[in-house]
Amino acid sequence: MNLPPNQKLAAPGKWPVVGEKVPRAGDTAPWTVTVHGAVTERRVFGLEALLALPQQTQTHDIHCVTRWSKLGVTFTGILLADLLALCGGPLPEAQFVSFVARSDREHSTSLVLAEALELGCLVAFTADGAPLDEIHGGPVRIVTPGRYFYKSVKWLERIELLAEDKLGYWEGEIGYHNGADPWREERYIASTVNPKVLERALATRDFSGLDLRGVDLRGRDLTGLRAVDAKLRDAHFEGANLTDADFTRANLSNAHLENANCTRALFTDGDLEGAAFEGANLTGTDLAGASLFGTTF
């Protein structure tokens, strides 16, 4: 078994659900996928027309940025290269491709076009021989081999070729790394914590609403810390004293809290996906409403 760094296998037979669970609410229009932008011919493909096209079957490993992996999943669909060929191919200025979901916020992701073609991106309809469940992106999603799975957008609605990159939701809003290579552990962009902002926050022990992604506070005494709505993805709190800390609605995905003292800490409604709590003191800790996919204790 060969896993990328710091990934763990999902439970046998399980495919964890991360992110949105349903496509755009109230949209009953027939499903279509539009190919547009820097392409020779803009085309709109109905679902039945897509399903009638020649398809390929590929087997790939799923690696989620929240640290779980599911190995050997077989997907069937149309190669992105083949779909673009039906549109006359990319125009010379096309350098990037954006995949947009039929979701309430139209979340998207992007790739260098040459990379997407080299990786063999697949417009997929089935997984392990069965139609994709809606919760896993059915009826049609992108599968991007060799990248964290946020590069494989659910509920595909639009494919746009671009001359300049357009960061997707996860990369632009959440701070996920645009490269997304699991073997290089490209989970998040580098921390851009302003030292003066951090100094003031530590002095007042108030991180509320601040973007402190990747901050390193190992071993610190942060008793009574207030971090409501803070962005603390990939932060390091190993061995820290977080007694009575308030992380309500904070994003602590992939954060490190190993051996921390979390006595009576509040993580209510927080994002703890992929966070590590091994050895932490969780006496009286409140995890009500928190998202715990891939969290380890």
UniProtKB/TrEMBL annotation:
Offer one Pfam family short name for this entry: Pentapeptide
Source organism of this protein record: Armatimonas rosea
Q: Where is the Oxidoreductase molybdopterin-binding domain?
A: 22-170
Q: What is this protein called?
A: DMSO/TMAO reductase YedYZ molybdopterin-dependent catalytic subunit
Q: Which residues form a coiled coil?
A: none
